[in-house]
Amino acid sequence: MPDHAHICRACRDGTAFETPFSMAFQPIIDRDRNAVFAYEALVRGPAGEGAGSVLGTVDDKNRYAFDQAARVRAIELAAQLDLPRKAENVSINFLPNAVYTPEACIRTTLETANRVNFPIDAIIFELTEGEAVADAAHLTRIVESYRKMGFKTAIDDFGAGYSGLNLLARSQPDIVKLDMELVRDLDTIHTKRVIVAGIVRICEELGITVIGEGIETAGESAALQDLGVSLQQGYFFARPGFEALPDPVFAAEAACA
Question: What's the pTM value of the predicted model, to 2 decimals?
Fold first, then answer.
């Protein structure tokens, strides 16, 4: 078991994660409204290097501190860039294995949001389904606690991870983000279309919003739209902007130009 008291002190003092990093932002658009629904904050090196240059230094000793530092940096930078002026939400990835007590581990996030005057209800926390979570009940507690505090929650990379539909049944997130492998060639591969259509129907019944990510072509975007998925993200609309909020290209014709 980790020494939680030591971890809290390290996170608070900023001594446990020493790798410098920053954030890039990529828009998630609403095709029905031609508006930006959210910007996802993505970890980058201090000069815009790929996420691997930072994530490769995260281990069991500093995972808690990294998770806290990433949240703080994302919210501070989103406020600095005046993100609420351009989008409804900021989406921040979190590591469920770096949250041992939701109420304790969220304090720094709340303090940061209050300090920079960033609205709590405009923050989405994305759980990466690809990270194995041994205690499913613990994950459910995290999601329930965050929602009670006013945050939105999402399952990222849905369809690629460990828990699949069991995760939906237990945690009831606000949002599901389809894994990009399900989206890739969705317009030409019938089996993928059937699977995605099934996920969309389930989410509709549960009151869960669906986002398609990793979109690279007009065909993929149109196929998602046909299935009722208007919230979309990918290079087709905009690449991540380092410490910036890139404007997406909404029209398919302009994106292909």
Answer: 0.88
Q: What domains are there in the chain, each with its CATH number?
A: 4-256 (3.20.20.450)
Question: What does the DSSP assignment read for the chain?
Answer: ---HHHHHHHHHHT-S-----EEEEEEEEETTTTEEEEEEEEEE-TTS--THHHHTT--TTTHHHHHHHHHHHHHHHHHHTTGGGT-SEEEEEE-GGG-SSHHHHTHHHHHHHHHTT--GGGEEEEEETTS--S-HHHHHHHHHHHHHHT-EEEEEEETSSSSTHHHHHHH--SEEEE-HHHHTTTTT-HHHHHHHHHHHHHHHHHT-EEEE----SHHHHHHHHHTT--EEESTTT---EETS-PPP--SHHHHH-
- The predicted-structure confidence for 189-219, as pLDDT tens digits, reads as follows 999 999 999 999 999 999 999 999 999 999 9
